Amino acid sequence: MTLLFDSFWRAVAYCLHPRVLLLSLLPLMLLAVLSLGLGYVYWDAALEVVRQWLQASAMVDSMSSWLAAFGVGKLDVVLAPLIVIFAVTPLIVVVSLLAVALLMTPALTAWVAEKRFPALVRLKGGSFWGSLGWSLLSTLLALVAMLVSLPLWLIPPLILIIPPLIWGWLTYRVMAFDALAEHASQAERREIFRRYRFSLLGIGVFCGYLGAAPGLIWASGALLAAAFVVLVPLAIWIYAWVFALSSLWFAHFCLAALQQLRLEHVPAPASGMEVIDLDSSPSAPPHDPLKLPNSH
Predict the structure, then answer these.
(1) What pLDDT, on a 0 to 100 scale, did the predictor assign at position 280?
(2) What is the pLDDT at residue 248?
(3) CA nearest 19: which of 292, 244, 254?
(4) Which range has the worst mean pLDDT, 134-148, 254-268, 279-293?
(5) Which of 1, 223, 265, 280 has its CA 20 to 30 A from that of 184?
(6) Phi, psi torsion values for 53, nearest 5 degrees
(7) Rounded CA gap, 115 and 11, in Å?
(8) How many CA atoms lie within 13 A of 154 on its CB side?
(9) Rounded to an integer, what distance in angstroms lies between the CA atom of residue 179 and that of residue 41?
(10) Is the separation of the CB atoms in 117 and 182 below 8 Å?
(11) What are the residues whose beta carbons fall under 8 Å from the beta carbon of 181, sequence distance 6 or more?
(12) What pLDDT was estimated at residue 229?
């Protein structure tokens, strides 16, 4: 528990560093670039497709006729841009966050190693392709667990327990692997996963609950179209900050655990004198340096 809380407060302190705050702004910049680029290329075509779909909808046509009676017309002109924005923004957000994940996790782990563990030997027990395969396999297992457990979500208390447990398990599997990929060997990584399984799962679940907070802001932006432009970037920035906190927490915890593991296997220095414990081996008499060996 000491290691768990020590790594947590260190991660929080690192999150307030200007470097982390600047890294957390990356998704906003990526979102702006992707939005402008996609809007320049596909905006008019997307609007035309959505307008045709709205005009062919009987429900929208009846609503337009009802609004026209009150002097409000052209419902498709108002709805089409909103539908395009709501449809495209989640895709842009996911791409932005994935790109930031690839940029932030290695940078933050290397930063923690440089600041706290400069003497920790890098055994490079994980590669890029190994990390990718591990992440894909873990994600697949998490999705299978989600599908299998769906009937249990109908029970009110379990919907607040099962999904965070699954995503917490996925978070610790992926982030702990990435935190140890550069420094730990495969045997060391397996031992840390075995020894600190519940602590790592607890970090993942806690970060999973933290990640639910931006979702509330996202839902508010979806309900309040006028605040969409403000709330969605705010939610993305909070997502990135929570992701940075998770990466730093796993980096501090895993590298400190690796250092402790290696210290356990360091042989004790020789004292230059042989110490004999008479109580532990009563059958072995002490060696008398004055007694000469028998000659035959």
Answers:
(1) 41
(2) 92
(3) 244
(4) 279-293
(5) 1
(6) -65, -40
(7) 13
(8) 4
(9) 39
(10) no
(11) 124, 125, 126, 127, 130, 131
(12) 63
Alpha-carbon gap, residue 11 to 247, rounded angstroms: 8
Rounded to an integer, the average pLDDT of 234-253 is: 84
Are the beta carbons of 113 and 182 closer than 8 angstroms? yes
Q: Residues in the chain, how many? A: 296
Q: Structure tokens of 246?
A: 């998770």
Residue keyed to tokens 């009802």: 66
Assign 286 a pLDDT band (cuts: 50, 70, 90): very low
The Cα 262–Cα 272 span in angstroms is: 24
Q: Classify 25 as helix, strand or coil.
A: coil
Q: How confident is the model at residue 166 (pLDDT cuts 50, 70, 90)?
A: confident
Alpha-carbon dihedral sign for residues 260, 265, 271, 274:
positive
Q: Long-range contacts: 43-51, Cβ < 8 Å, 24+?
A: 43/84, 46/84, 46/88, 47/80, 47/81, 47/84, 50/79, 50/80, 50/83, 50/84, 51/76, 51/77, 51/80
Q: What is the pLDDT of residue 39?
A: 74
Q: Which of 3, 21, 1 is nearest to 250 (CA)?
A: 3
Residue 205's contacts (CB-CB under 8 Å, 6 or more residues apart) are 164, 165, 167, 168
Asked if residue 217 has pLDDT above 80, the reply is: no
Mean pLDDT of 112-125: 89
**10 Å Cβ neighbour count for 150?**
12
- pLDDT tens, residue by residue, 41-67: 877 887 787 777 766 665 555 655 555
pLDDT of residue 64: 57
Burial degree of 185 (CB within 10 A; 0-12, 13-18, 19+): middle
Instruction: Compute the distance between CA of residue 260 and CA of residue 255 in angstroms, rounded to an integer.
Output: 9
Secondary structure letter of residue 266 according to DSSP = S
Q: Give residue 185's region: left, alpha or beta (phi > 0; psi -120 to 50).
A: beta
